[in-house]
Amino acid sequence: MTPTFLQFLIVCPLVGLAGFVDAIAGGGGLISLPAYLIAGLPAQAALATNKLSACMGATIAAGKYAKSGYIPWKTAIPCVFFAMLGSSLGARIVLMIDDYYFKRLMLVILPLTAIYIYRSRAMVQEREKLPFWQTALIGSAVSFAIGIYDGFYGPGTGVFLILLLTSLAHYGLKESNGLCKAINWTTNVSSLAVFLLNGKVLFPLGLTAGLFSILGSYLGARTFEKKGAQSVKPLMLVVVAIFFVKVLLEIL
């Protein structure tokens, strides 16, 4: 299909906003994917084209965080590996389990998540570092678990990943965000490769929206560098609220 001018008008600004939000707090897919669907793209084309624009933005965000020294490379490699392994497993699970009960469980988990984010000091105050092997082990386990969630359902993956890496693995907020971007970039590229091989990507719309995603991701990464937790917590709460409304509408 050939994208219309109206579709460009709907998708591009929202994808730019998604890139901004994702670079700071994760969860940009809760904005970008609905933008493609609202614009009238078939589900598979929306998923595939969204991956293209998301990969473009994620590349800039990951590069910016890497340049700033926020990606802990020694533990990033096993975390990325286990995230991809979990994502593959999650994709298999979705073929066997109905998400009917899972969505209802999310209606309980999301408000509790919002309360924890609001009250948590883990993202504001640096916690005592764990031994390297313990950090790598917990980080890999978290990445594997969230990878399963990403492959099975997906929305809000970045938010949950940052939250668990700071609270359980005692990563600093900057390291958690940097690691999250490295994982997101890897899993996005893997998914995009599958869609490209199957010819599902709308290149004119995806590449144009990708430029907006790049701009949003760059601005988001710079905002995070300047404001840190002050910018993360409010946006994470917004993402969780959007996610809650999305799940509720799906159930209704």
Shape: globular
The counted number of beta strands is: 0
Spatial gap, N to C terminus:
31 Å
Number of helices: 10
Give the DSSP E fraction (strand runs of 2 or more residues). Answer: under 5%
Largest sheet features: none
Please give the radius of gyration in angstroms.
17 Å
Number of domains: 1
Order of SSEs: HHHHHHHHHH
Helical residues, percent: over 70%
Structural class given helices, strands, pairing?
mainly alpha
Give the rounded overall mean pLDDT: 85
**Which regions are unreliable across 5 or more consecutive residues at pLDDT < 50?**
none
Please describe what this structure looks like:
This protein is mostly helical and 252 residues long. 80% of the residues lie in helices and 0% in strands. It has one domain. The chain has helices at residues 5-25, 29-38, 43-67, 73-93, 100-119, 132-152, 157-167, 173-197, 203-227, 229-251. The two termini are 31 Å apart. The model has no long low-confidence stretch (mean pLDDT 85).
What would a concise description of this structure say?
With 252 residues, the chain is mostly helical. The protein is 80% helix and 0% strand. It has helices at 5-25, 29-38, 43-67, 73-93, 100-119, 132-152, 157-167, 173-197, 203-227, 229-251.
Keywords:
252 residues, mainly alpha, 0% strand
Annotate the secondary structure layout.
Elements: H1 5-25, H2 29-38, H3 43-67, H4 73-93, H5 100-119, H6 132-152, H7 157-167, H8 173-197, H9 203-227, H10 229-251
Helix pairs in contact: 1-2, 1-3, 1-9, 2-3, 3-8, 3-9, 4-6, 4-8, 5-10, 6-7, 7-8
